[in-house]
Design goal:
The protein is an alpha/beta fold. The protein folds into 2 domains: 2-163, Rossmann fold (3-Layer(aba) Sandwich); 168-292, N-(1-d-carboxylethyl)-l-norvaline Dehydrogenase, domain 2 (Orthogonal Bundle). It is built from 14 helices and 9 strands. The strands form 2 sheets. Strands 3-2-1-4-5-6 form a 6-stranded parallel beta sheet. The protein has a 3-stranded mixed beta sheet with strand order 7-8-9. Strand 1, helix 1 and strand 2 form a beta-alpha-beta unit. Helix 9 crosses helix 11 and helix 9 packs across helix 13. The structure holds NADP nicotinamide-adenine-dinucleotide phosphate. NADP nicotinamide-adenine-dinucleotide phosphate is lined by residues 6-12, 30-32, 35, 63-65, 69, 72-73, 94-95, 120-121, 123-124, 230-232, 235, 239. NADP nicotinamide-adenine-dinucleotide phosphate (NAP) is lined by residues 6-12, 30-32, 35, 63-65, 69, 72-73, 94-95, 120-121, 123-124, 230-232, 235, 239. This is 3-hydroxyisobutyrate dehydrogenase. The active site is at 170. Belongs to the HIBADH-related family. Keywords: NAD, Oxidoreductase. Residues 2-161 form the 6-phosphogluconate dehydrogenase NADP-binding domain.
Length: 293
Protein backbone atom coordinates (compact mmCIF):
# COMPACT_ATOMS: atom_id res chain seq x y z
CA UNK A 1 0.00 0.00 0.00
CA UNK A 2 1.15 3.60 -0.61
CA UNK A 3 1.49 5.26 2.79
CA UNK A 4 2.30 8.85 3.69
CA UNK A 5 3.70 9.99 7.02
CA UNK A 6 3.81 13.60 8.28
CA UNK A 7 5.73 14.17 11.53
CA UNK A 8 8.75 11.92 12.01
CA UNK A 9 9.85 12.78 15.55
CA UNK A 10 10.39 10.32 18.41
CA UNK A 11 7.14 8.42 17.77
CA UNK A 12 6.49 9.07 14.08
CA UNK A 13 9.93 7.95 12.87
CA UNK A 14 9.66 4.63 14.70
CA UNK A 15 6.07 3.95 13.60
CA UNK A 16 6.90 4.89 9.99
CA UNK A 17 9.93 2.57 10.08
CA UNK A 18 7.71 -0.33 11.14
CA UNK A 19 5.32 0.39 8.25
CA UNK A 20 8.28 0.48 5.86
CA UNK A 21 9.59 -2.79 7.30
CA UNK A 22 6.15 -4.33 6.69
CA UNK A 23 6.74 -3.77 2.95
CA UNK A 24 4.70 -0.62 2.31
CA UNK A 25 5.72 2.21 -0.02
CA UNK A 26 6.38 5.25 2.18
CA UNK A 27 6.45 9.01 1.49
CA UNK A 28 7.49 11.30 4.35
CA UNK A 29 7.49 14.96 5.38
CA UNK A 30 8.68 16.61 8.60
CA UNK A 31 9.21 20.28 9.52
CA UNK A 32 12.88 19.54 10.23
CA UNK A 33 13.93 17.56 7.15
CA UNK A 34 16.92 15.87 8.82
CA UNK A 35 14.54 13.83 11.00
CA UNK A 36 13.44 11.92 7.89
CA UNK A 37 17.01 11.02 6.86
CA UNK A 38 17.10 7.53 8.37
CA UNK A 39 13.72 6.67 6.79
CA UNK A 40 14.86 7.94 3.38
CA UNK A 41 18.05 5.88 3.67
CA UNK A 42 15.84 2.87 4.48
CA UNK A 43 13.80 3.39 1.29
CA UNK A 44 11.18 6.10 1.96
CA UNK A 45 10.70 9.07 -0.41
CA UNK A 46 10.79 12.68 0.76
CA UNK A 47 8.03 15.10 -0.31
CA UNK A 48 8.33 18.90 0.08
CA UNK A 49 4.91 19.54 1.64
CA UNK A 50 2.11 17.60 3.40
CA UNK A 51 0.03 18.18 0.23
CA UNK A 52 2.65 16.39 -1.89
CA UNK A 53 2.77 13.51 0.62
CA UNK A 54 -0.98 12.98 0.24
CA UNK A 55 -0.81 13.17 -3.56
CA UNK A 56 1.55 10.14 -3.47
CA UNK A 57 -0.46 8.13 -0.90
CA UNK A 58 -3.62 6.10 -0.27
CA UNK A 59 -3.39 6.33 3.52
CA UNK A 60 -1.71 9.22 5.37
CA UNK A 61 -0.65 9.21 9.01
CA UNK A 62 0.10 12.40 10.96
CA UNK A 63 2.08 12.38 14.22
CA UNK A 64 2.96 16.00 15.04
CA UNK A 65 3.25 17.71 18.44
CA UNK A 66 0.37 19.99 19.48
CA UNK A 67 -3.20 20.68 18.31
CA UNK A 68 -1.99 23.81 16.49
CA UNK A 69 0.50 21.71 14.53
CA UNK A 70 -2.34 19.37 13.60
CA UNK A 71 -4.48 22.31 12.39
CA UNK A 72 -1.56 23.56 10.33
CA UNK A 73 -0.72 20.30 8.58
CA UNK A 74 -4.38 19.57 7.74
CA UNK A 75 -5.69 23.01 6.79
CA UNK A 76 -2.78 25.11 5.45
CA UNK A 77 -2.61 25.88 1.71
CA UNK A 78 0.03 23.17 1.14
CA UNK A 79 -1.63 20.93 3.72
CA UNK A 80 -3.17 17.51 3.79
CA UNK A 81 -6.71 18.41 2.73
CA UNK A 82 -5.35 20.33 -0.26
CA UNK A 83 -3.94 17.06 -1.65
CA UNK A 84 -6.70 14.62 -0.60
CA UNK A 85 -9.46 13.02 -2.69
CA UNK A 86 -12.35 10.62 -2.03
CA UNK A 87 -9.99 7.61 -2.05
CA UNK A 88 -7.72 9.02 0.66
CA UNK A 89 -7.86 7.82 4.28
CA UNK A 90 -6.34 10.24 6.83
CA UNK A 91 -5.26 9.12 10.31
CA UNK A 92 -4.14 11.58 13.00
CA UNK A 93 -2.08 9.83 15.70
CA UNK A 94 -1.08 13.04 17.49
CA UNK A 95 -2.48 13.33 21.03
CA UNK A 96 -4.81 16.25 20.41
CA UNK A 97 -8.20 17.73 21.29
CA UNK A 98 -11.33 15.60 20.74
CA UNK A 99 -13.07 18.73 19.38
CA UNK A 100 -10.33 19.20 16.77
CA UNK A 101 -10.61 15.54 15.75
CA UNK A 102 -14.35 16.10 15.23
CA UNK A 103 -13.72 19.26 13.20
CA UNK A 104 -11.21 17.48 10.93
CA UNK A 105 -13.57 14.51 10.46
CA UNK A 106 -16.51 16.82 9.62
CA UNK A 107 -14.41 18.80 7.13
CA UNK A 108 -13.27 15.52 5.56
CA UNK A 109 -16.82 14.11 5.44
CA UNK A 110 -18.05 17.23 3.63
CA UNK A 111 -15.54 16.39 0.86
CA UNK A 112 -15.96 12.59 0.90
CA UNK A 113 -12.58 12.06 2.63
CA UNK A 114 -12.34 9.49 5.43
CA UNK A 115 -10.64 10.60 8.65
CA UNK A 116 -9.76 8.72 11.86
CA UNK A 117 -8.26 9.95 15.13
CA UNK A 118 -5.89 7.28 16.43
CA UNK A 119 -3.66 8.43 19.30
CA UNK A 120 -1.39 5.81 20.84
CA UNK A 121 0.04 4.72 24.16
CA UNK A 122 3.20 2.73 24.84
CA UNK A 123 5.93 5.35 24.54
CA UNK A 124 9.08 5.48 22.47
CA UNK A 125 9.78 1.84 23.29
CA UNK A 126 6.30 0.73 22.20
CA UNK A 127 6.70 2.68 18.95
CA UNK A 128 10.06 0.99 18.19
CA UNK A 129 8.89 -2.50 19.15
CA UNK A 130 5.48 -2.20 17.42
CA UNK A 131 3.76 -2.88 20.76
CA UNK A 132 1.64 0.28 20.98
CA UNK A 133 -1.99 0.48 22.02
CA UNK A 134 -4.04 2.37 19.40
CA UNK A 135 -7.22 4.18 20.42
CA UNK A 136 -9.40 4.97 17.42
CA UNK A 137 -12.34 7.28 16.75
CA UNK A 138 -14.21 7.50 13.44
CA UNK A 139 -16.26 5.46 11.02
CA UNK A 140 -16.23 1.65 11.16
CA UNK A 141 -15.72 1.27 7.38
CA UNK A 142 -12.54 3.38 7.34
CA UNK A 143 -11.35 1.63 10.52
CA UNK A 144 -11.75 -1.83 8.96
CA UNK A 145 -9.83 -0.70 5.84
CA UNK A 146 -6.75 0.38 7.82
CA UNK A 147 -6.90 -2.06 10.75
CA UNK A 148 -4.20 -4.31 9.18
CA UNK A 149 -1.85 -1.28 9.21
CA UNK A 150 -2.57 -0.60 12.88
CA UNK A 151 -1.80 -4.27 13.58
CA UNK A 152 1.71 -3.81 12.15
CA UNK A 153 2.54 -1.12 14.70
CA UNK A 154 0.66 -2.21 17.81
CA UNK A 155 -0.34 -5.08 20.05
CA UNK A 156 -3.84 -3.74 20.66
CA UNK A 157 -6.18 -1.62 18.57
CA UNK A 158 -9.69 -0.55 19.61
CA UNK A 159 -12.40 1.48 17.87
CA UNK A 160 -14.16 3.47 20.61
CA UNK A 161 -16.84 5.31 18.62
CA UNK A 162 -17.23 8.31 16.32
CA UNK A 163 -14.64 11.04 15.61
CA UNK A 164 -13.01 12.27 18.82
CA UNK A 165 -13.63 9.02 20.73
CA UNK A 166 -10.00 7.93 20.23
CA UNK A 167 -8.78 11.22 21.72
CA UNK A 168 -11.16 10.81 24.67
CA UNK A 169 -9.78 7.29 25.30
CA UNK A 170 -6.24 8.72 25.16
CA UNK A 171 -7.23 11.35 27.76
CA UNK A 172 -8.44 8.53 30.02
CA UNK A 173 -4.99 6.96 29.52
CA UNK A 174 -3.21 10.21 30.42
CA UNK A 175 -5.29 10.64 33.58
CA UNK A 176 -3.94 7.25 34.70
CA UNK A 177 -0.37 8.21 33.70
CA UNK A 178 -0.68 11.41 35.77
CA UNK A 179 -1.08 9.14 38.80
CA UNK A 180 1.69 6.70 37.91
CA UNK A 181 4.25 9.44 37.11
CA UNK A 182 3.62 11.45 40.28
CA UNK A 183 3.50 8.18 42.25
CA UNK A 184 6.82 7.01 40.79
CA UNK A 185 8.48 10.36 41.54
CA UNK A 186 7.35 10.52 45.15
CA UNK A 187 8.08 6.80 45.71
CA UNK A 188 11.71 7.40 44.71
CA UNK A 189 12.00 10.57 46.84
CA UNK A 190 10.64 8.65 49.84
CA UNK A 191 12.94 5.68 49.16
CA UNK A 192 15.99 7.96 49.14
CA UNK A 193 14.94 9.82 52.31
CA UNK A 194 14.38 6.51 54.11
CA UNK A 195 17.89 5.34 53.17
CA UNK A 196 16.69 2.35 51.12
CA UNK A 197 18.44 0.99 48.02
CA UNK A 198 16.26 2.36 45.17
CA UNK A 199 17.25 -0.48 42.81
CA UNK A 200 16.01 -3.03 45.35
CA UNK A 201 12.82 -1.03 45.92
CA UNK A 202 12.03 -0.81 42.17
CA UNK A 203 12.75 -4.52 41.80
CA UNK A 204 10.46 -5.47 44.71
CA UNK A 205 7.64 -3.06 43.75
CA UNK A 206 7.70 -4.35 40.17
CA UNK A 207 6.58 -7.73 41.50
CA UNK A 208 3.78 -6.41 43.73
CA UNK A 209 0.56 -4.43 43.67
CA UNK A 210 2.35 -1.15 42.80
CA UNK A 211 3.63 -2.54 39.48
CA UNK A 212 2.93 -0.24 36.52
CA UNK A 213 4.37 0.85 33.14
CA UNK A 214 5.86 4.14 34.40
CA UNK A 215 7.67 2.33 37.21
CA UNK A 216 9.14 -0.31 34.88
CA UNK A 217 10.10 2.05 32.04
CA UNK A 218 10.93 5.36 33.71
CA UNK A 219 12.13 4.16 37.14
CA UNK A 220 15.40 2.75 35.75
CA UNK A 221 15.94 5.91 33.63
CA UNK A 222 15.67 8.11 36.75
CA UNK A 223 18.15 5.90 38.62
CA UNK A 224 20.55 6.32 35.67
CA UNK A 225 20.00 10.13 35.73
CA UNK A 226 18.68 9.78 32.17
CA UNK A 227 16.14 12.52 31.45
CA UNK A 228 16.20 12.33 27.65
CA UNK A 229 12.71 12.08 26.13
CA UNK A 230 11.00 9.38 25.82
CA UNK A 231 7.95 11.43 26.16
CA UNK A 232 8.52 15.22 26.29
CA UNK A 233 7.24 16.83 29.52
CA UNK A 234 5.83 19.70 27.42
CA UNK A 235 3.67 17.18 25.53
CA UNK A 236 2.43 15.61 28.75
CA UNK A 237 1.47 19.04 30.11
CA UNK A 238 -0.46 19.64 26.86
CA UNK A 239 -2.32 16.35 27.45
CA UNK A 240 -3.15 17.14 31.08
CA UNK A 241 -4.50 20.55 30.03
CA UNK A 242 -6.70 18.96 27.35
CA UNK A 243 -7.93 16.25 29.76
CA UNK A 244 -8.86 18.82 32.41
CA UNK A 245 -10.60 21.09 29.85
CA UNK A 246 -12.64 18.10 28.66
CA UNK A 247 -13.40 17.03 32.26
CA UNK A 248 -14.54 20.57 33.01
CA UNK A 249 -16.93 20.46 30.05
CA UNK A 250 -18.41 17.25 31.54
CA UNK A 251 -18.77 18.83 34.99
CA UNK A 252 -16.04 16.61 36.50
CA UNK A 253 -13.58 17.80 39.14
CA UNK A 254 -10.42 15.68 38.74
CA UNK A 255 -8.39 17.10 41.60
CA UNK A 256 -5.51 14.56 41.53
CA UNK A 257 -5.03 15.16 37.79
CA UNK A 258 -5.22 18.92 38.39
CA UNK A 259 -2.46 18.57 40.96
CA UNK A 260 -0.31 16.60 38.50
CA UNK A 261 -0.88 19.37 35.95
CA UNK A 262 0.30 21.99 38.47
CA UNK A 263 3.48 19.96 39.12
CA UNK A 264 4.20 19.66 35.38
CA UNK A 265 3.50 23.40 34.97
CA UNK A 266 6.26 24.07 37.49
CA UNK A 267 8.58 21.73 35.57
CA UNK A 268 7.79 23.15 32.12
CA UNK A 269 6.75 26.78 32.64
CA UNK A 270 8.75 27.74 35.75
CA UNK A 271 11.93 25.66 35.39
CA UNK A 272 11.91 25.43 31.58
CA UNK A 273 12.44 21.65 31.62
CA UNK A 274 9.80 20.85 28.98
CA UNK A 275 12.36 19.24 26.67
CA UNK A 276 13.19 16.63 29.29
CA UNK A 277 11.23 13.40 29.42
CA UNK A 278 8.30 13.16 31.83
CA UNK A 279 10.58 11.32 34.29
CA UNK A 280 12.39 14.68 34.79
CA UNK A 281 9.57 15.72 37.14
CA UNK A 282 11.83 14.55 39.97
CA UNK A 283 14.26 17.37 39.09
CA UNK A 284 11.53 19.89 39.87
CA UNK A 285 11.30 18.58 43.43
CA UNK A 286 15.07 18.91 43.94
CA UNK A 287 14.99 22.50 42.60
CA UNK A 288 12.12 23.41 44.95
CA UNK A 289 14.04 21.75 47.83
CA UNK A 290 17.20 23.80 47.11
CA UNK A 291 15.19 27.02 46.89
CA UNK A 292 13.59 26.31 50.26
CA UNK A 293 16.94 25.75 52.00
P1 LIG B 1 8.31 14.93 18.59
O1 LIG B 1 9.54 14.13 18.66
O2 LIG B 1 8.35 16.38 18.90
O3 LIG B 1 7.65 14.70 17.15
C1 LIG B 1 6.75 15.57 16.54
C2 LIG B 1 7.26 15.82 15.13
O4 LIG B 1 6.27 16.53 14.41
C3 LIG B 1 8.54 16.66 15.13
O5 LIG B 1 9.52 16.01 14.36
C4 LIG B 1 8.08 17.96 14.50
O6 LIG B 1 9.02 18.59 13.68
C5 LIG B 1 6.93 17.51 13.65
N1 LIG B 1 6.02 18.62 13.38
C6 LIG B 1 5.41 19.43 14.26
N2 LIG B 1 4.68 20.36 13.62
C7 LIG B 1 4.83 20.11 12.31
C8 LIG B 1 4.33 20.71 11.14
N3 LIG B 1 3.51 21.76 11.22
N4 LIG B 1 4.70 20.20 9.96
C9 LIG B 1 5.52 19.15 9.90
N5 LIG B 1 6.04 18.52 10.95
C10 LIG B 1 5.69 19.00 12.15
O7 LIG B 1 7.20 14.30 19.57
P2 LIG B 1 6.78 12.77 19.79
O8 LIG B 1 7.32 12.31 21.08
O9 LIG B 1 7.04 11.98 18.56
O10 LIG B 1 5.21 12.95 20.02
C11 LIG B 1 4.33 13.21 18.94
C12 LIG B 1 2.88 13.19 19.47
O11 LIG B 1 2.61 11.91 20.03
C13 LIG B 1 2.61 14.22 20.57
O12 LIG B 1 1.29 14.70 20.43
C14 LIG B 1 2.73 13.39 21.84
O13 LIG B 1 1.96 13.94 22.91
C15 LIG B 1 2.20 12.04 21.38
N6 LIG B 1 2.70 10.85 22.08
C16 LIG B 1 4.01 10.75 22.45
C17 LIG B 1 4.45 9.61 23.11
C18 LIG B 1 5.89 9.45 23.54
O14 LIG B 1 6.16 8.61 24.41
N7 LIG B 1 6.85 10.17 22.94
C19 LIG B 1 3.56 8.56 23.38
C20 LIG B 1 2.25 8.68 22.96
C21 LIG B 1 1.82 9.82 22.31
P3 LIG B 1 10.39 19.23 14.25
O15 LIG B 1 11.34 18.10 14.14
O16 LIG B 1 10.69 20.38 13.37
O17 LIG B 1 10.11 19.64 15.69
Amino acid sequence: MKIGFVGTGVMGAAIAQNLLDAGHELTVFNRTKSKTAALVTAGASWADTPKKVVEQSEVVFTMVGFPNDVKQVYFEDDGIFAGSNEQTILIDMTTSKPSLAQKIAEYGASRGIKVLDAPVSGGDIGAKNATLTVMVGGQETAYQQVKPLFEKISKKVTLFGPAGAGQHAKMANQIMIAGTMTGLTETLLYTKAAGLDPHKVLDALSAGGAQNWSLSNYGPRILDDDYTPGFFARHFLKDLRIALQEADKMGLDLSATANAKRLYEVMVDVYDLGDQGTQGLINTYSKVDKENK
